[in-house]
Write a structure and sequence with these properties.
By secondary structure, the protein is of the alpha/beta class. 33% of the residues lie in helices and 30% in strands. A hairpin with a 2-residue loop joins strand 1 and strand 2. Helix 4 runs antiparallel to helix 5 (136-149). Keywords: ATP-binding, Nucleotide-binding, Translocase, Transport.
Length: 252
């Protein structure tokens, strides 16, 4: 079953086409990596399919009423700033707002979802600390936990592992894989092609103002596409622990 579908999606800014004619679907149980060079339009595409900016074409998610959209998809933008000095637990509890009625207080299920998200992101011991006193990487983990607590069929995350240390980059991608294992899906933009190859079930490659490829990582990141789109060469090998991908050198 398709959770979100975009057809002939395009965005223009300042009279210039950022991208055009992008079409793909995301079904249940997928971790879809959105990749491409800087300026390819990854963030713009995510915001467009959510209906957060004007676009051409169709997005089944953007067509939904805002309340229904919030129950279907959690959105983690690239911005990591937490402005208010409230506790980590309070920030994560905000993820439960789409499931609460007007003036309804969080119940047992809401607290359980928040506790699970805190544990998943290794934040349980920080739950009472003011979120503004945490490091940038820790705040990023708080916002990922908030998205996880929202408990939606689809999570859309814009560069969620940027700024995290290697251990938390890996554990975050493992958390996304765990969501896919229980039938949920993740659309995640990222620059680390090695982690994308290892943890994503599919890759959508943007570049040259369009969608260049959509498919399994090993089929998308061919030497020809790496050279043409990213201007690099890379080493790739399938091991017993999974695929390993290492960019080697700049070709231009």
């Amino acid at each position: 079953m398709s959770l979100v579908s975009v057809t002939d999606l395009g965005v223009r800014m300042g009279g210039r086409a950022v991208f055009s004619d992008v079409s793909f679907e995301i079904g249940a149980g997928e971790v879809v990596g959105l990749i491409g060079p800087n300026g390819a339009g990854k963030t713009t595409l995510m915001r467009a399919l959510l209906g957060l900016l004007p676009f051409e074409g169709q997005s089944t998610l953007a067509a939904l009423p805002a309340a229904e959209r919030a129950r279907l998809a959690a959105w983690m933008p690239q911005s990591r700033e937490i402005a208010w000095p409230v506790s980590v637990e309070t920030v994560v509890m905000l993820g439960r707002v789409p499931h609460l009625g007007t003036l309804q207080r969080p119940g047992e299920e809401d607290r359980a979802r928040v506790a699970a998200a805190l544990e998943r992101m290794e934040l349980a011991e920080m739950r009472d600390r003011p979120a503004t006193q945490l490091s940038g990487g820790e705040q990023a983990r708080v916002l990922i936990a908030r998205a996880l607590a929202q408990d939606t069929p689809l999570l859309i995350a814009d560069e969620p592992i940027a700024g995290l240390d290697p251990a938390h980059q890996i554990s975050t991608m493992q958390s996304f894989a765990a969501l896919a294992d229980v039938g949920k899906s993740v659309l995640v933009s990222m620059h680390d092609l090695g982690l994308a190859v290892r943890h994503c079930t599919r890759l959508v490659l943007l570049g040259e103002g369009r969608m260049i490829a959509d498919g399994p990582p090993g089929e998308v990141l061919t030497p020809e596409r790496l050279a043409r789109v990213f201007g690099i060469s890379a080493w790739y090998k399938v091991t017993e622990e999974g695929p390993v991908y290492q960019p080697l050198e700049v070709l231009r």
